User: Fold these one by one.
Assistant:
Number 1:
Amino acid sequence: MLDARTPLLAVKDLQAWYGESHILHGATFDVRESEVVTLLGRNGAGKTTTLKSIMGMVGRRTGSVRFEGNELIDRSSDQIARAGIALCPEERGIFASLNVEENLLLPPVIRPGGLSLERIFDLFPNLKERLGASQGTKLSGGEQQMLAIGRILRTGARLLLLDEPTEGLAPVIIQQIGKTIRALKEQGFTILLVEQNFRFAATVADRYYVMENGRIIDQFATVELDANLEKLHDYLGV
Amino acid sequence: MTEIFGIPVAVILGQLMLGLVNGSFYALLSLGLAVIFGLMGVVNFAHGAFYALGAFAALLGLQRFGVNYWAALVLAPLMVGILGIVLERLFLRRLYKLDPLYGLLMTFGLALVVEGFLHQLFGASGQSYPVPDALAGALNLGFMILPIYRAWVIVVSVVVCFGTWFVIERTRLGATLRAAKENAPLLQAFGVNVPLLVAATYGGGVALAALAGVLSAPVVLVSSQMGDSLVIVVFAVVVIGGMGSILGSIVSGLVLGIVEGFTKVIYPEASNIVVFVIMALVLILRPAGLFGRE
Ligand SMILES: Nc1ncnc2c1ncn2[C@@H]1O[C@H](COP(=O)(O)OP(=O)(O)OP(=O)(O)O)[C@@H](O)[C@H]1O
Ligand SMILES: [Mg+2]
């Protein structure tokens, strides 16, 4: 059993490379059980690379990624998924050669405790109506995003990595996704969210990390948000 | 007797039927190639060798161990499939990150090794395999006498080919295979052991070749070179159908067998090259193949 102070996910001195290019230069942060933690940062800061490194999807990485106390840095990405982490990738990663239902059922259930299909349809009623659609990529952007989130809720993963789930979506859909994230948190999911839109992040997150050039350069909690607003504008260049 | 262009209809139908038998082998072999190429991007030059290996496994089983045809139909593809998985794990998997040419050279090398091994063990002269009793005899179709065994070949091939198509296009396993083809890293990050899936797919593809080998054993001479000329035609079939297209490989295999049979009737001299002429035309008019995308 984890003691209460051990974070669910502890990342230490994470470095990552794509071929020769050294992208992450020692990122250190953690995510505690049932938290929503947001990773902020400008384009190219290394946010996506951080999520991919946690999942074991980059060429080479060093440092430490501990999940539920187990070291994952030397594991392959399928083993990492089976440890209980699930990724909703940037650009959603819906498979064009699979229909909607096949996309939804694609990730294997890795342990008990995942949401049933009915619960997923409660969260995303639109998905149920579009189940018959022939190609996953024929859905609207918002529906695709719901499919991308919905499909990782079935698997029993406890930690969800969401990479810019609001990108390019209409305000009503963004609101629905915010509502979903809060509902998921209530149901005991732990979420590491990557966002550029910190106004959206502020509606769901407990804590923030700011990333720049492959390092974590600052962190604060939601209650400290107002005090840090100016700094944050600076970091994000908005 | 009725004639078309001075050729008796019975002769035409007879040749079409024989063409369909050849097409059944083309379809099974090109399907295996398409499955392997589709997922792995490997042009499996060892396909003809695995076909021969399937036939020899049946022959050896019968001569040495008393394994009958029906058991061989299951056991030979199974054993060759397992061998394929072992070879993929040992050699092929190291090459995926490199230029596709390396995979091609590796499988070509594997073909030479397997065929050399068969040659060493069984000699150069072909051996025959008896038609199983239950499939001996012939059917009188009216226009021709069709040996029952050849009808059996058509039935097995069509059932296995469309069964494979069904699994790939309509089942959960097939959805996983299609996802692996489209975005393997993401599928693996969902918890699927993609390297194992790839190895199993190679095993499945070469098992289809071995099945074709067992099926062919009673109708051809079993020799280490038996796959060589066949597989060249089959590569042309795959290109015509569209590299990696499952349905394309099945349909073009069957249709090109029939086209070849028809050519034998109207212009026998061209029957050996008609498939290649069609391939050239397809490459000019529709480079992705008849069923290929883009
Ligand atoms: N596959 C790759 N190969 C080489 N370099 C890459 C690759 N993917 C990303 N990079 C580089 O790594 C750096 C970090 O990229 P990353 O995608 O992690 O940034 P990000 O913070 O997610 O940006 P964004 O907000 O635009 O999504 C960038 O400089 C990018 O050019
Ligand atoms: Mg990104």
Note: Residues A 47-48, 90, 163 surround magnesium ion (ligand 2) (CB under 6 Å).
Number 2:
Amino acid sequence: MTQQAATIERRYVEAWNAAIAPSSSDVPAELHALRESAIAKFEEVGFPTARRGNEAWKYTDVAPIANAAFEDLAPAAPVRVATEALDQHIMGGSVWNRMVFVDGHWVPSLTSMPTLPPQVTVTSLAKAMALHPHLVRDLLGRYAPYDESGFTALNTAFLRDGAVLIVPHDTVVEEPIHFIYLTSSEGQSSVTQPRTLVSMGRNAKASVIESYGALTDTLSLTNAVSEYVLAEGAQLDACRLQQHSGSAYHVGSAQVRLGRDSRFTSGAFDFGGAIARHTLSVALEGEGSECTLYGLYMTNHGQHVDNQVLVDHIAPHTTSEQVYKGVLDGRSRGVFHGSITVQQAAQKTNAKQSDKNLLLSDEAEVDTKPALWIYADDVRCGHGAACGKLDDGALFYLQSRGIDEAAARRMLVHGFANEVLEHVELTPLRVHLEQLITASLRSSRRPS
Amino acid sequence: MLEIRNLSASVGGNRVLNGINLTVEQGEVHAIMGPNGSGKSTLSYVLAGHPQYVVESGEAILDGEDLLAMPAEERARAGVFLQFQHPVEVPGVRLDQFLRAGYNAIHKSKGLEELDPLQFDRLLQQKAGIVNMEPTMLKRSVNDGFSGGEKKRNEILQMAMLEPRLSILDEPDSGLDVDSLRLVADGINQLRSPERAVILITHYQRILNLVVPDVVNVLMGGRIVRTGGVELAEEIEAEGYEGQDEVLQAQG
Ligand SMILES: Nc1ncnc2c1ncn2[C@@H]1O[C@H](COP(=O)(O)OP(=O)(O)O)[C@@H](O)[C@H]1O
Ligand SMILES: [Mg+2]
């Protein structure tokens, strides 16, 4: 690590010494030990700023994030939260179960669980650490290794709060559980470290949404880590919705472990952020497990959105499908790296991947790259990547029916996005996404 | 109603239309017949405002207005409808929603009532009966995975919904079986009225037995080489297009 880089990381270590170290007695000893070793790891590996030999960050320069002079590296719990600003993140009215975090801290007054079965545990990580230390000890950090990623190490080092969902075996949670992570910053630029932990018991079933956003348009970094564990026969639908402001940086990773015959569906929706980078790693560990991973990224102006989707077929008879789409306008840039690994034992694997992009401006750019690592012989794998402009023929067809050019363009973009949206089974989420697409198209103000 | 004068146009750098003259009056059905590559589709695209087709000279006046100066959507609002020879597939855009957007845009421009989805659905289902289209197809993506015949019937359904003053039908008959041809012809005949006009482009005489034209024009090499009544279509059916341009030269 260079001298200058070391100073960057040093600031985080100092903030850790000031804000986290003194609170060691508030959390179980093992957890504090975890944080201590994580900050040591972070100090060692630092941010992945190297521009050479850094395959994983080849298309995303992390320097603006690493060098940003955030004023508050471990913000305290907010004094007051303006609930109006929360409205644009609310879905599912009084039916969905909801838990809100501001600046990384749980806000009990904005939490409601109207439709949660009694045997299901949804709680803040801080509370869980006090009430169920064994649960947290058994699950937390087991699936999100922090020894390879500086960002995961940083999140683990600053662990104070987050969301925990534990669904016991044979339990079906009918209504979604929505975790909303917001940055308020109260005027200061800040860094928050959201953490989500979901454990699905045998044959349990649930839907989870993670939303990320900001209450103000201030410089900020959200560094999120999620862990999802599905036991045999469990089903989980997990969506991630990133609608940050244009001044926000977002880095996130989700680690998913799939048990035998479990089914995991995930939707990744990126609309905001100056730089947003998300890594979704799914390990198909149990025979017969399946995952469907779909995503939509919509960027404009100078935005940069990077999705890394890493699917690892470990057991036989496993199935995966990746369906990602991007709509890029302005000078924005999209990155999609989808990798499929089929281990030697994973015979009869069926894996598909597709990433299609629509470029609405000449300055927009996409780097899309599939990577297949196949070590078994009896497998079916397919992949495809595409990049194109709006179809002039379709545009003329719509206009020839009386639809003006701007409206025709909007229709075609919605149509393009529909291949992803049709996977979204939750109506309030789908409606919300359609509104975000419309709003994003409005903001592009193209001449017609 | 429509007056085309000395219209020349090119596409992809090729001059395709070479001085078209054609006058279509209200209430008339004009057949335009011609061999492949003679410029029939080009003429229809030029009239509908396809941006790839470049007008080199001449004019087209619709009800006293300069049609060629309008963008495609304004031509539709002025009452022009193009039935595409090859209707475009639009994945992800639902047929009913697409058509309602067009219908309402046209109605709005005329100060007529716009329809909400329920009202529109009712009307659409009723019109779908004309071309025997399944209600489930109306909820599918526009032309996406439709068979050739379904695409043609869908075009006629759109025409029935939009009730254009000038319909330009580009080979509504090609690729159709006898039953579909009859449905399509019925759809066209239902729209015939003293206020409307139809330009019916076809390669074969077959459809002209079902939709009887007032005038038959022969288009060859980018110009109208002959004009006559239904007997001209019969002559072409019997003798083919070969020699038609010589007939013109002999006449004139
Ligand atoms: N997009 C295009 N680019 C280049 N040439 C074209 C294009 N479209 C049509 N043409 C040419 O113009 C001529 C007339 O085509 P078209 O109008 O489609 O004929 P028709 O409909 O009578 O069969 C043909 O020679 C065709 O190859
Ligand atoms: Mg043609």
Note: Chain A has nine helices and 20 strands.
